[in-house]
Amino acid sequence: MVTRCKKVNVDIYVDAVINHVGGGSGVGIAGSPYGHRTTAIYAQEDFHHKPGDLSAGCSITSYYDKYQVQYCDLEGLPDLCTSCPRVQTLVSQYMTNLLQMGVAGFRIDAAKHQDAGELKQLLEKVQGGIPWLFGEVIYGAGEAVTPEMYTDLGLVTEFRYAGQLAPNILAEGKLQYLKTFGESWGFLPGGSAVVFMDNHDTQRGGACGANLTYKNGALYTLANVFMLAHPYGYPKVMSSYNFDAHDQGPPDVPVHGSGLACFHGSWVCEHRYPEIANMVAWRQAAGTGAPEVFQSSEDGNGAFFCRSSSACVALNRGSGNWSVKVKTTLPAGQYYDVLRDINVSSCPFVRVAVDGTAELLVPSTSAVAFHVNARSTPRARLLDDRDQRSEKGELPGFVERRG
């Protein structure tokens, strides 16, 4: 799979579970037994354990106790001794083998539950070095282990991002407050943070208040548009499946139908939403520029900003269309509103006048986005008032069709 993906310029990042092993006991599909703090690879001595008792570990009862967080069993999962030479050798060999296969980097699962210094020792043993990684460190107010402890190792998950962005999307009238969104809100430095609206855990638990998911429909999509438009952090887009129960497994049907579409029921495929997929190119066009010319509506439901002289976006949280004249930073010309269709050349366009202004009509709970790498041709159609009225109350793209 790694080789096939590399041929089409798709990088694979491994979710490396190196803090612990599975709980319970039994026999694996290859016939190897596990349980009682032993596996086919690890012996009881390779785990953290109670003094004088190799068969048992302590439990985490307080996240204000650093020792418990990093040396006791997480939810009953036997905790590997990541400072032990044998464990460091086995894990570093595992990661080295994956890199030799061609993977591009790692997500370190439960990094919070491994001492940062010990984890650094382990990672330094990986042959050739690790090109890119980020650690999963869930923030907890006042807790003994913080995300800041891991920024020297690579990027770190910033769970507070979604937790603080979500309330400003869920409620009307709050987009205006996003003008200062970023590090000043108490987040990690932007260059150290991996940001996301949801992941496989928050979809089922809402850690740090991150409670927006595909089930929120247009609001979730709008939040992702903002995430990809805003320069803070390294954004991570979710791609998941429909579920009703917390522990419900994935569908038993292929992701793609005969036409390679993945919106046919069981699979959600958020990464294929036109509004999300096309914002990736928007972000690339925007480069590293900070938000400029921030403009909000009187009711706080609308927000507009540009990045450098390359890309602009307008978001509308209101229940009605937002008609607004904005001052852009883009050269005069006609630009596709890239959020309306996965095929950008089928999108309507926005006209930027010689003085840099543009008149926009942003649909309810939606956005308009345009950038210098998606200029329309002279034959492109205008998004006139008739087009806007026909779309009143609808989310551009496929989200509403999925319910």
From TrEMBL:
One of its GO terms (biological process) is carbohydrate metabolic process. Its cofactor is Ca(2+). It catalyses: Endohydrolysis of (1->4)-alpha-D-glucosidic linkages in polysaccharides containing three or more (1->4)-alpha-linked D-glucose units. It is an enzyme of class 3 (hydrolase). Keywords: Calcium, Carbohydrate metabolism, Glycosidase, Hydrolase, Metal-binding. GO terms for molecular function: alpha-amylase activity; metal ion binding. Residues 299-375 form the Alpha-amylase C-terminal domain. Transmembrane segments: none annotated. Pfam families: Alpha-amylase, Alpha-amylase_C. Residues 1-283 form the Glycosyl hydrolase family 13 catalytic domain. InterPro entries: A-amylase/branching_C, A-amylase_C, Alpha_amylase, GH, GH13_cat_dom, Glyco_hydro_b. Its EC number is 3.2.1.1. Residues 384-403 are annotated as: Disordered. Belongs to the glycosyl hydrolase 13 family. This is Alpha-amylase. It comes from Cladocopium goreaui.
